[in-house]
Amino acid sequence: MTERITARKNPLLQQVRRLLSSRKEREESGLFAADGTKLLREAIAWWPGLHTVILSDGVSMEIPEGVRVVQVPEDVMASISPMQTPQGALFLCRLPEKAPFVPKPGMLLLDGIQDPGNLGTILRTADALEIPVALLEGCADPYSHKTVRASMGAVFRSQVVQTTWQEAARALGEAEIEIGVTALSEKARDLRQAPLSQMAVVIGSEGQGVRKEILKAVQRELIIPMNPRCESLNAAVAATIVMWQMKQ
């Protein structure tokens, strides 16, 4: 049965605002919020933890049984939506259980990717190319609404793995999978000459690159060949090139 809420200070709507703005709130409540009808369709199709759906007047969708459905006036939706032009749907999902890190050849490790747009784009591309990805320390929240939107629903289709460098390095070492890093250094070699499909490759943060701790621990540094007048590439673009080369 669909509920109707018209008060902007309703507890549910206040909770939505907190979930949209606070990673701590998401982690403590075990919920995250996302917006948009397209992403809602992805969640309905792929995510078992769909919890609550809020729809603007005039917007209708087939929602699975057992999911709370709330209808609100358009002005109320506008008051809680993170979008300047709301699509008429906001929804809450349960956070998943922590997925174990499984070392695999041809995988990507993300070190301190802090921009949710970059992170979401990388997850979207990895989902499209079927590349395993693990998030190391310092990455943006994969369940922030900005990351979810940039991933175009990839976070619903492929569970995000979060781990530490120590855990990843140990597991990859035990599995005898070589780790490489993308780096702008004199030691770095053209990534086209490396067996990327058999390696795990670390992509570093937008501003700092890969942590020194990781650089010191690995044997192979990789560079994307480019015009010498160009200093570097966007982290999501660099990750896409690495993933594409992994598939060759």
Automatic annotation (TrEMBL):
Q: Where is the tRNA/rRNA methyltransferase SpoU type domain?
A: 108-244
Keywords annotated in UniProt: Methyltransferase, Transferase
Q: Which residues form the MRM3-like substrate binding domain?
A: 10-90
**What GO terms describe the biological role, i.e. biological process, of this protein?**
methylation; RNA processing
Q: Which domain of life is it from?
A: Bacteria
Q: Does the keyword NADP apply?
A: no
GO terms for MF: RNA binding; RNA methyltransferase activity
| InterPro entries per record | Alpha/beta_knot_MTases (IPR029028), MRM3-like_sub_bind (IPR053888), Ribosomal_eL30-like_sf (IPR029064), rRNA_Methyltransferase (IPR051259), SpoU_MeTrfase (IPR001537), tRNA_m1G_MTases_N (IPR029026)
Q: Does the keyword Methyltransferase apply?
A: yes
Q: Which family does it belong to?
A: Belongs to the class IV-like SAM-binding methyltransferase superfamily. RNA methyltransferase TrmH family.
Name the chain's protein.
Answer: RNA methyltransferase
Provide the species name.
Candidatus Faecousia excrementigallinarum
Instruction: List the top taxonomic levels of the source.
Output: Bacteria, Bacillati, Bacillota, Clostridia, Eubacteriales
